[in-house]
Design goal:
14 helices, alpha+beta, 15-stranded antiparallel β-sheet, about 20% strand, Glycosyltransferase, 28 strands, Beta-galactosidase, Chain A, domain 5, three-stranded antiparallel β-sheet, about 600 residues
Length: about 600
């Protein structure tokens, strides 16, 4: 359904009206109207062949839906799977559209099956393939039950028994489904330099996909009151994992805005060390040792040898070159420009990532001992490097583009890196300059408590000398820098609750007062809101924590997915989707409220 805006005609649905299907190498977003509006092929960070999410129908989409008026729509994932089931009810009957991507073998497929449930329903398929993020119209040919779209090396093959016709640079087909009947569509990505891929047996592919996800979800060891939310979030993280290498993308989209019409639009189809390290800790808690080991291998390959060359993010295979540019032909989601491809934050110095990575490595499973030894060596190299650079300013966790500062959270995470490296090396008897690490750990602790805490505010602040608050400071009690019952931790939680919470959700910081190099505001940050839940729980306000957690769970869409942010005024999701960090923070809160997670014990520092 196209919607008129001041800047033109846009096709995309509200962000919360999308579901994700994926094959653990890429993913597609399917709207409530049965339209696939976003798909990058063959991988998460490849060019999109359906980009209507960021523009119009002319930028590529694939819709299968009733031809007439729809009375009601219901959606769900099949039990314990990533197989999407959308049921359309019309005056004439009812049909179920099943969408999935089989775990990849040689080629990547999108399979769509229409099943008649009741009566007789007239259906329509509309297809516009546009390679290169909606820019390139392919050459389309058809023969029998097969359609091919080719542009350069890119080729997409569609197979269906529905009779198709071309019109207005699109492909259309009308068909009718009666109760008990099934009509299928299979779209396959491949190189135009190769032979067309073999025909995919649809029902066997469905059974294989269901079996894959059920077996994976069956490994989940969480047993608590939030089992449904935990399972769906874990499966979302699995779907965001690039299976061949083990890296985890922050989201499957680029440039979904943090405020409608604003410029805070970023490409999240890469692997942030921070996000993947958080994910590793959650996976270990849930019992997914294999994924944790694969992530560690990805990290060791990506980081390579020199700690002073560690980047905050990498490509899905560990690529280091991530160039940011703008797709000027795309009008953006509801006119939110620019549409960015790539991410210039890769060049930033963010001190906190060392803490997340070292903390994750210290919890790495002990399987494959030779890998653990390599991880210990990396820990030691990072700790030595931190002793040289922790007192330098950085761009911080929020990747501000307004200049480097001495961010309090960054210093705390530098402390975490040294603390975990010390404990790890002492436990395993590794060789390392532990005395130097301990000296610097104490220096950081003293400096943060002296320069990062404002006595008048009774709170830790965003950066040294600042009066601004930052929700990242909620992590101070969660990472063991200070015990949760420390008055400064309690004060920080309560002041952030009072000043950064709007309509029950937490903002990262006050964008009106913080010079972050960007204009315009943003929505409430969902990960920060979950951090508040966990913090309230840790400081003993358990009833408040549970109540807030329930409110946050209610913000998920009808299939349990979350974006990056939420607009409390417009009551809608904002930012890239689905967002790994939001689901990671949800999981951490669920484990904490279930009594299955506690922060690392804090280390006492004299006089503080």
């Amino acid at each position: 359904m196209e919607r008129k805006k001041k800047t033109g005609t846009f096709h995309a649905s509200r962000i919360e009206d999308y579901c994700m299907i994926g094959d653990c190498e890429t993913a597609a977003l399917v709207s409530r109207e049965g339209s696939i509006d976003w798909l990058c092929w063959p991988t998460f960070s490849s060019g999109a062949c359906f980009a209507a999410l960021l523009g119009t129908r002319g930028h590529g989409y694939w819709q299968i839906a009733p031809a007439g008026k729809v009375k009601a729509t219901r959606r769900q994932y099949g039990a314990h799977t990533l197989v999407l089931e959308t049921t359309f009810e019309t005056e004439d009957g009812e049909v179920c559209l099943t969408d999935f991507m089989p775990p990849r073998e040689r080629h990547s497929h999108v399979v769509r099956i229409v099943r008649g449930l009741r009566g007789r329903v007239a259906m329509q398929m509309d297809l516009a393939i546009r390679f290169d993020y909606g820019r390139t119209i392919p050459w389309v040919t058809s023969k029998g039950h097969e359609l091919r779209a080719i542009a350069g090396d890119d080729m997409v093959t569609l197979r269906t028994k529905v009779r198709l016709r071309g019109a207005d640079m699109m492909t259309r087909g009308r068909f009718t489904v009666r109760k008990g009947e099934t009509v299928s569509f299979t779209m396959t990505n491949s190189s135009s330099l190769e032979k067309a891929p073999a025909v995919l047996p649809v029902e066997k592919a469905l059974a294989r996909t269901q079996r894959f996800w059920k077996q994976w979800s069956g490994k989940n060891k969480y047993r608590g009151p939030y089992a449904e939310a935990v399972e769906r979030s874990l499966m979302t993280l699995k779907a965001l994992t690039y299976r061949p290498a083990g890296g985890i993308v922050a989201a499957v989209t680029t440039s979904l805005p943090e405020k409608i019409g604003g410029p805070r639009n970023w490409d999240y189809r890469y692997c942030w060390l921070r996000d993947t390290a958080f994910t590793l800790l959650i996976l270990i808690h849930a019992g997914y040792v294999e994924e944790a080991v694969e992530w560690r291998k990805w990290l060791l390959r990506a980081v390579a040898g020199a700690p002073d060359q560690v980047q905050i993010m990498y490509g899905i295979r560990g690529e280091r070159q991530i160039v940011e540019w703008e797709a000027g032909w795309l009008p953006g989601y509801e006119g939110s420009r620019p549409v960015r491809i790539g991410n210039a934050a890769v060049e930033q110095f963010q001190l906190d990532v060392f803490g997340e990575v070292v903390a994750a490595l210290s919890r790495t499973p002990e399987a494959e001992d030779e890998i653990r030894v390599s991880a210990s060596s990396l820990q030691g190299a990072l700790a030595n490097h931190l002793c040289d650079v922790w007192n330098e300013p950085d761009e911080g966790i929020w990747e501000v583009r307004g200049g480097a500062r001495h961010f309090t959270h960054s210093k705390v995470m530098a402390w975490v890196a040294l603390d975990r490296a010390i404990k790890h090396h002492e436990h395993y008897g590794r060789h390392g300059d532990v005395m130097r690490w301990k000296k610097n750990r104490e220096m950081i602790h003293r400096e943060v408590c002296r320069k990062g805490f404002d006595k008048k505010l009774n709170s830790f602040v965003q950066s040294y000398g600042s009066k601004q608050l930052d929700a990242a400071c909620l992590l101070i009690g969660m990472v063991g820098f200070l015990p949760p019952d420390d008055p400064r931790v309690i004060g920080t939680v309560e002041v952030i609750e009072k000043r950064l919470m709007k309509d029950g959700l937490v903002e990262r910081y006050d964008t009106r007062k913080t010079k972050d190099g960007l204009r315009g505001g943003e929505g409430a940050f969902l990960a920060c809101s979950f951090w508040m839940v966990t913090s309230l729980w840790l400081i003993g306000r358990k009833a408040d924590a549970k109540a807030m957690f329930e409110r946050l769970l209610a913000l998920r869409n009808d299939v349990g997915l979350l974006s990056e942010e939420y607009d409390t005024v417009g009551e809608r999701m904002l930012g890239n989707f689905p967002q790994a960090l939001s689901h990671i923070a949800l999981l951490q809160s669920a484990f904490a409220l279930s009594g299955l997670w506690k922060p690392e014990p804090s280390v006492k520092t004299k006089g503080l």
